[in-house]
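Researcher: Go.
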Amino acid sequence: MNVTKAKPAKTVRRHSGRPTKEQAGQIAGQLVDVATRLFLESSFEAVSIDLIAATARVSKQTFYARFASKEELFAAVVRKAMNDLLVPAVSESNRDEPIEATLIRIGVELSKRALAPAAIAMDRLITSEAHQFPELALTYHENAIYVRGLIADIFSNAMRDGQIRSTTDERFAAEQFLYAVVDGPARSAILSGKTVRPEKELRERVTAAVQLFLDGCRDGTTRR
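Model: Structure:
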């Protein structure tokens, strides 16, 4: 009797090589997220590249393929935190509505984000490490300029529509708006420890600040 020999199973060859651009971006994002949590739980100095790589479950070779140093990763952490805090609240606003409603919406959202525990912890981390990283000031400056530009566009549209004086300097107005309505009050709340506020109280404060601010940008010929 002829016995048919079973053919040996084919070995499945796994493709190896460099990760795709999408995979590389995912790994970089994973490292930023892991580092953010570790830095906030401890400090920049206390967290090593070995710990970051082990927690993210990647090799040190993979780490260095994305970031040249821990300092470069820290800058990426700060950049992402600032983008998450500032940009969405401004870029998602409806610029076709009256400027007062737009600024109140932005002011409330930015204030809520600035007073969130994670944002406060990040602010303290940046403050404590700023002396070691002069480039952090540049990162902050670049993000602030971008956000001020978005808000300046809102003031520019309001001038075009006759809602505020056409002689208003839109970039200066955007800078002062952020300080008067968001940065100053948020900093005061953090220093006093009163970071938890009912949304109704927060909205009333922002509304009053926006109305006072816009009163200085209007004259008898502008419409509300």
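Model: The chain has a mean pLDDT of 82.
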